[in-house]
Design a protein that fits this description.
The chain is of the alpha+beta class. 18% of the residues lie in helices and 31% in strands.
């Protein structure tokens, strides 16, 4: 079945980089009301290029929500179980936002631009109105708005070399999960040592949407000899790197403990937050399922449109595969999936119902050790 062609209209927001990033893309999706390229040459070719060279990603869809004002820190604390007070100005932290039941609203990167000013850099869900409603209902003295800031990502092992040609060698010293405010092509930007790949790179937050093409072309012109080209988040690479996708590997129906995000925070932080009682109860009672990494035997399997059932020996569904792909480097199918806690230990055998039939699978460790 041929995939439908994406129809564009003013209902979708326009990326400042769209005139460049959509050239040559074969497939795209809609993410946070913007267009996100998903493949250029092929999934595998894009993967190998990302691992070996450097790419420019149009990730303007990584929408920002700005929170500023006298109660900005107190409000940010209210959104997440992570202790935001430990985030210094110039630092980024990754953390889940949770609702009153402990369900995951989003798993953003939070940037602290000043003592009383933050950006919430979002995965694909509508957080702006949720945050505004919470602030109004609880009486926080904050301003919450979309600052019209659009990220452009530079990812791959040659990202340091590319950025050093534009900003000088000092950019190589920027620590992971830190950012600086600077200019590129006379345009104010925030440059962070972050990105949705395991290959290393930067995210450049454009503050003047009208300068998007100039920013893109400046970086492209600096890429001589680096085999620089347009790219996008890659399914193979992100699963290999252990990067979860909100809406796929976790939703509002999941809590951060079963999704394994509790490694980014400790329960019992000094300040109160929405969902605190719910999370503490979940932690005390224990979860029934856990997100695990899996190796699925056999020929390559496609990423599920929804999920693939994980079954026990009796054929009963006990869990679900949320993301899956064939890794040409590891030469096997790798996947994320929720399994019962008592089968989450590496080496445990399970079965996965795929479109090609029932497949043997095994829970594996963080290095995707083959069995």
């Amino acid at each position: 079945m041929n995939a439908p062609v994406l129809s564009l209209s003013r209902r979708l927001r326009v990326s400042p980089f769209e005139l460049r990033s959509l050239q040559g893309t074969k497939t795209a999706s809609v993410y946070n009301h913007l267009v996100l390229p998903t493949c250029y040459e092929s999934l595998e070719a894009d993967y190998w290029h990302l691992r070996e060279h450097v790419q420019l990603w149009d990730v303007a869809c990584q929408v920002q929500v700005e929170v500023s004002g006298p109660d900005a820190l107190e409000f940010m604390e209210y959104l997440t179980p992570r202790d935001v007070s430990r985030c210094a100005v110039g630092q980024c932290i990754y953390t889940p936002l949770v609702d009153e039941c402990g369900g995951i609203i989003n798993d953003p990167l939070i940037l602290r631009l000043a003592e009383d000013r933050f950006w919430i850099s979002l995965s694909d869900s509508d957080v702006l109105l949720w945050a505004k409603g919470l602030a109004l209902g609880k009486g926080f003295d904050v301003r919450i708005f979309d600052p019209d800031v659009f990220p452009l990502s530079v990812q791959g092992p040659k990202a340091d070399e590319l950025l050093s040609r534009v900003l000088g060698d000092s950019i190589r010293d920027l620590k992971f999960f830190r950012f600086i405010e600077t200019t590129i092509a006379e345009t104010p930007v925030v440059v962070a040592r972050t990105g949705w790949s395991g290959q290393g790179g930067y995210e450049i937050y454009l503050r003047e949407p009208g300068a998007g093409i100039r920013l893109w072309d400046t970086l492209a012109d600096a890429g001589d000899g680096l085999q620089l080209r347009a790219g996008c988040p890659n399914l193979i690479e992100r699963i290999e790197s252990g990067l979860l996708s909100y809406g796929n590997d976790m939703t509002l129906e999941n809590n951060p403990i079963e999704a394994g995000l509790d490694r980014f925070f400790k329960l019992g932080k000094p300040t109160d937050y929405l969902g605190r009682a719910a999370l503490e109860k979940i932690a005390a009672e224990g979860v029934s399922s856990q997100l695990a990494r899996l190796i699925i035997a056999g020929e390559p399997v496609a990423n599920p449109r929804t999920v693939y059932a994980i079954c026990n020996e009796a054929g009963e569904q006990t869990g679900a595969v949320t993301s899956a792909v064939y890794s040409p480097r590891l030469e096997c199918n790798i996947a994320f999936g929720y399994v019962p806690v008592d089968t989450a230990t590496p080496g445990t055998a399970v079965r996965v119902m795929t479109p090609a039939g029932l497949r043997e699978a095994v829970v594996t460790d963080a290095e995707w050790t083959a069995y």
